Each structure stands twice: as C-alpha cells, then as structure tokens.
Amino acid sequence: MRILIIDDDEVFLRQMEKNLSLEQYSAYTAVSGEKALLILKENEMDLILMDLKMPGLSGVNLIQKIREIDCNSIIIMITGYGTIESAVQTMKAGAYDYILKPFNFPILLEKIKEVELELKLRKKIAVAESLETLEYEDFLTLKNLNEYESPFLIISDENPSKIIHDLNISKCYTIWLSHNVGEDTVAPTKLYSLIQKIENFVEKNEKGTIILKGIEELLEIHKWDDFKRFLIYLQSEILSKNFLLILLLKKGNHLATESYKILLHDALSVLINPVFNKIIEILSHSLRKSIINLLQTEKDLNFNKIINKLNIKHSSSLAFHLNKLVQESIIEKEEAFYSLTSRGSYIAEVILLLEKMGFSDPSSQVKILTFSEIPKD
C-alpha cells in the first residue's frame, strides 16, 4: 500500500515514515498541502493521512483540491480533540475517517487495516462506480428492453417522449419532472406528489419497470433526509415487489465535486440494499452456497456428479435447491448439465471475499494463521 502523510511537523513526518516502512508500507511525506498536490499529480496513492490544521491549504479546501486532480485516494484526517467538529465537516467533504491526536501507532495500524479491506471491497464489488459510468448509448443497444418487464414508467427531467423514441418501447406511462402544469407532470420540488404518481402505477400493475432520469436534479433540490426517505420508499415499496428500477445518470461537471459524488454514492447505496438482501437470502442455506462454490471451480456438472461431489444423502433436497438457484438466475441448466450464470459468478466472488474478510474479523470465532516451516537439518 502506498501512503502519503501530510503534516507541517517534520519530526512527526520522519517518525511516521519510519514506522510505516517497518510495516512494509511505501510511505511518502509532504510538509504542506501544496507540496502534497505536486506529489499526487505524479504518483498514485492508496491512502492519504492528512493533518487537519496546517498553514496554507488544510481541511476541506485541501480535500477539494485533491479531488479536482482526479485523485481517488482514501483520506484519513489527523486532528486534535478541539477540532472534532471540523473533522466531521471534512468527512462530509470526502474524508474516509479521522483519528485523534495524540495516538499510539497500533491504533493507526488498525485504521490502515480497515482501509485495506475497503480497497479490496472497492476492487471486487464496484457497484456504485459501474452505475456512475453507465453509457446511455450502450443502453440503447438492448433489443427493445426485452429483458425488462413491461409496462414501463418513465420519469424524466426532460420530455419522456424522447426516451420512448430512443428505446422504441410501447405500453408505458410517463412523468415529466417539470414546473409546467400538466396531467403527467410533477414539479421536481414535490417528492410527495412524485410518490403518489409512482404508487398509482404500482397499484395498476402487478409488475413493471421504472426508468428514472433526473436523480441529479432531485439531489440538488432536496435535503438529504427528505431525499433518503424517497429512496427508502423506492427500495421498500417498489424494488421489494415485482418491479425493476433503471437509473439513467448524466455525465458532466457536477460529478467533479466530491460532495456531489458522496451524495450520489449514498443514494445508490440505499437503492442497492435489496441486491445484498437477496444475496443473503440465497446464501442463508449452506447447500446453496456449496453448489455455487462447486460450480465456480468445476464446469458443467450433472445432477449425479453434484450429489457425489457434495456427498448429499437426499436427492430431493438437492433438487429443491438447484431449482431455487435456477429460478434466481444464479445457475442455468442446459440439457442435463448445470453451470453458473454471470450473476452466479458474481455471487461466487462475493462469497470468496466475505470468507476472507470473516477470517480477518477480530471477533471471528475462526482464525487462520500461516507459518514458515522450519528447515530440517
């Protein structure tokens, strides 16, 4: 891991560099925010440890400058007891966490271990990032959205007829987020009215797909608590039923501000919860987990081979759980052979990651220790 320490105390910098190097981390130092920016323009860092109070650039201003140069390093603030409120403000601006001075080095090491797990998670499960880079042009290549349920409810901050034309869909309802008065329009300031319109659509249909374009404007207009309640409504009342949600996100300068990125990430995190709930439900039975792990390592197994390899006594139990996994599009059956779908491969990766994290959890009842064998004389 590459770590940059920013502090105007040179003695502190030298000690930190020495301690981190002893732990096999690559440590870099900067005595000011300005010098740190020069280093970050030339070097990629995994973690930035930054003093909150420094001459020149410090706190929120330095974080903003760091993000402006497209640096996505995780930032931990170092602060004294008297500036906790300021530290919280910097976390809102994009800092990952803060640590109080004075601190013992083992405490910092614990924070760094947390960051290492966070980096692994970001690498393995880049859900929010993949949504942020959704290409509308790629979306248009879908064959009339055949893989999505109809009817469609199109909610858009521009005339929904354009989306209808682009996607070549029929049997759809529309809501135009506009201040113009109309039967199918809702002012973007009125979340309650928007919810009522969505509820009308859900009540009239047993299933369907909602396409939402304009989440950026809603984020800018509404307080986070109000908007979060709207997202929780979508999650609990829409996504938990037989409805799908497609978000169309814009590219533009508004994505450059770190505060906006955080808001968007939080919004997507709320909406993604049903995905994880479904994964937990699937993995709640050890046999289903074992089937996924087996098919991740061995391709195209028939029913009898799965029974033998997993040493299953009751074939009816296996049949039930195989059917469950097929229904959830995690495995597929072609002729007599089972294999993982792309969704199944994703869940297999999640299982592997969770297992690794579980063994490193300080409260885990299971520990895995490695040792070097002593050479024989």
Fraction of residues in β-strands: 15-25%
> How helix-rich are the residues, as a percent range?
40-55%
**Average pLDDT, all residues:** 79
CATH third-tier fold name of the largest domain: Rossmann fold
Structural category: alpha/beta
Count structural domains: 3
Distance between the termini: 37 Å
Instruction: Write out the strand line-up for the largest beta sheet, numbering strands in chain order.
Output: 2-1-3-4-5
What does the largest sheet look like? 5 strands, parallel
What's the helix count? 16
Radius of gyration: 25 Å
Name the poorly predicted regions: 125-134
CATH architecture of the largest domain: 3-Layer(aba) Sandwich
Number of strands: 13
Q: Please give the CATH class of the largest domain.
A: Alpha Beta
What is the ordering of alpha helices and beta strands?
A: EHEHEHEHEHHHEHEEHEHHEHHEHHEEH
Task: Please tell me what the overall shape is.
Answer: flat
Name the features.
Rossmann fold, 377 residues, 5-stranded parallel sheet, 52% helix, Arc Repressor Mutant, subunit A, alpha/beta
Folded structure, characterized:
- The protein has helices at 10-22, 33-42, 59-68, 84-93, 105-124, 127-132, 136-140, 160-167, 191-204, 215-221, 224-239, 258-283, 286-297, 303-310, 315-327, 342-360, and strands at 2-6, 26-30, 47-51, 74-79, 97-100, 152-156, 172-177, 185-186, 208-213, 243-248, 301-302, 331-334, 337-340.
- The protein folds into 3 domains: 2-124, Rossmann fold; 131-273, 3-Layer(aba) Sandwich (Rossmann fold), CATH 3.40.50; 285-360, Arc Repressor Mutant, subunit A (Orthogonal Bundle).
- The chain is 52% helix and 16% strand.
- It is of the alpha/beta class and 377 residues long.
- The strands form 3 sheets. It has a 5-stranded parallel sheet with strand order 2-1-3-4-5, with helices on both faces.
- The longest helix has 26 residues, at 258-283.
- Helix 9 packs parallel to helix 11 (224-239), helix 11 packs parallel to helix 12 and helix 13 packs across helix 16.
- It has 16 helices and 13 strands.
